[in-house]
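Methods — Computational structure assignment.
A single polypeptide chain was analysed. Its primary sequence is given first, followed by the predicted tertiary structure written as structure tokens.
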Amino acid sequence: MFERLTAQPQDKILMLMQAFREDPRADKIDLGVGVYKDAEGRTPIMRAIKAAERQLWEVEETKSYTGLAGDPGYSDAMVALVLGDAVARDAVAAAATPGGTGAVHQGFDLIRMANPDARVFVSDPTWPNHVSMLKHMNMPMVPYRYFDDESRGVDFDGMMADLAEARAGDVVLVHGCCHNPTGANLTLPQWRELVALLQKTGATPMVDIAYQGFGDGLEEDAAAVRLIASELPETLIAASCSKNFGIYRERAGLIMAVSHNAEARALHQGTLNHINRQTYSFPPDHGARLVTMVLNDDTLRADWAAELEEVRLSMLGLREQLAGELRRLSGSDRFGFLAQHRGMFSRLGATPEQVETLRRDFGVYMVGDSRMNIAGLNAGTVPRLAEAIVKAGI
């Protein structure tokens, strides 16, 4: 039977990581892998998480299963973090998942169960795993225009024109903040226009929010998802704790289904429990437990929020430094978009050939579509990257 299997395409980011490791150059720069790094190139454990782990070691008495939807306290804490008071807690069905990827997968599965013919509209470009999962699950997918290669901003008119084709029973997948891979985001007035369009078409929004706190701040980054969830009858939300809590390997995520109908909410919760049971039974708890402890303890939460703000401001400072250095070297403002983008990523706008030149001649590693991880830089490597970009003719 297994001789019928065919080789699957290799993950381009994982291939890039391997090539970087094998490169002997001491001054190489890794802008490919999507994890936060500090000025020393480390992905540190956040202070509040470390403190919560010490507390948990002292008080944890069992490793028995949690519920199918995970610990209710985790769901309560995460719903409050993402949605605030935009909707009532009893309007939200939620289930813990293995990371944000697990949340997205469970959201897609819920869509497929509700309407096997649902088309999922995805931004062009989007996080590659969105497309990969939809293809793997054999779900209809429709790309919509998003990134303007000329301005390096959002092609809002093109986006709205494409999404006007969505209809009731379809799903529109959006990034809540810090768009991956482009770093270009909608303004709040644009989000309001999108909400009005969704109200008109009847399509259901699904928000992937993986970087809350990395853009303009914890509350500011949640503004779009809160607007959507409060104004539309149903909303799916996939949240990740990997980045803003720095617990990548602990795999803590949450899928939420918001409905302003009590009966629908109960149905959603039962269905999410069922999907978890069929996929992995009980979700992992360690990372989720740490997040819950941090969010529910005033001292830990304050320290976490302060460190997260340090991370955000560090990335913003790198963006501004890189934009300024490129302005100095190129004599133009064509790279000013780097200071306007938010989050870990920006799409530089280089051709695949120019990206290869950066790798071959300058030891600069980024994904072939020129997505670069701003957090892979530090104050010392920014001038070298800027020089390489200009010399590569970008």
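Note: The chain has a mean pLDDT of 94.
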